[in-house]
Amino acid sequence: xxxxxxxxLIIGKHFQWHGAGLTLLAQFLIAVMRVRxxxxxxxxxxxxxxxxxxxx
Length: 56
Hints:
Layout: H1 3-14, H2 19-35, H3 40-43
């Protein structure tokens, strides 16, 4: 299981959110840890998925 899926499951136990909200929060937290910045332009490059960077 990937770090993303593990984090999403943990977050889901604490928040009763729709799946898309859990996914966004998990990706955001992992991106902050990878990039070590809160610059949203830099964070968009670290999101997991097939979406192009400007769409993130």
